[in-house]
Amino acid sequence: MIKQLSLAIVLAAACLAPAFAQQTPAPENAEVYFIAPEDGATVQAPVTVLFGLRNAGVAPAGVEMEGTLHHHLFVNRTPFGEDDAAMNIPSDDNHRHFGGGQTQTTLDLEPGEHTLQLVGGDHNHIPHDPPVVSDVITITVE
Fold first, then answer.
1. Tens digit of each residue's pLDDT (9 = 90 or more) over 20-29
2. Distance, CA of 118 to CA of 52 (rounded, Å)
3. In 3D, which of 39, 68, 33 has the Cα closest to residue 51?
4. CA neighbor of 94 nearest in space, from 70, 112, 119, 128
5. How many whole angstroms from its chain centre is CA 94?
6. Nearest 5°: phi and psi at 141?
7. Cα 11 to Cα 68: distance, rounded to the nearest angstrom
C-alpha cells in the first residue's frame, strides 16, 4: 500500500511539474509595440490594430522554439504587473490571444476611451522572463 501511494505521488509530481516550470527566457532585447493605432489616436470602429516586434520571431502557441513569442492583447485592464508575470494569460474580452502567430486584429470597440497593451507569451501562453510588454496606449473610439 505504501509503495502504491509513493508511486502515485511520484507520478502526480511528474505530471504537474510542467505547470510549475520556470518562465521561458525572453529573447535578448525583444520588444513588442503598436504600429497602429498610435497612442492618443481618435479612431472609428472597427479598429485595426497592427502589432510590431523587434529582436524576436513569431511562433504559434504550442510550438516551443527559442527566440520566439506570440502576441496577447490586453484590452481595458490594468497594465501588466508583477502578479501577471508567471501566470498563464487568460483568454477573455480583456485578454485576447493570437496563438496562431497573427500580427494584427480588428476590434469592434464601443465609443469611448480604451486602453491597449501588447504582451508576448511563450508556447504555453506564459509571459517571458523578463516580460516582453509594450507601453499602454489609450485610444478614443468615436
1. 447 899 999 9
2. 9
3. 33
4. 119
5. 11
6. -95, 125
7. 31
C-alpha closest to that of 32 among 110, 127, 109: 127
What would the DSSP string read from start to end of 57-98?
A: EE--TT---TTEEEEEEEESSPPP-GGGTTSPPP-BTTEEE-
Q: Which residue has the cell 468615436?
A: 142
Report the helix count and the strand count for the chain, using DSSP H and E. 1, 9
| C-alpha cell, 31 | 520588444
Per the listing, cell 479598429 goes with: 47
Query: What's the pLDDT band for 85 if we cut at 50, 70, 90?
Result: confident
78-95 burial, b for 16+ CB within 10 Å, e for fewer? eebeeebeeeebeeeeeb
Which grid coordinates belong to 116? 491597449
CB contact at 8 A, 70 and 99:
yes
Cis peptide before 130 (omega within 30 of 0): yes
CA-CA distance, 79 to 132, in Å (whole number)?
A: 13
- In this prediction, residue 18 carries a pLDDT of 43
Query: What one-letter code names the amino acid at 119?
Result: V
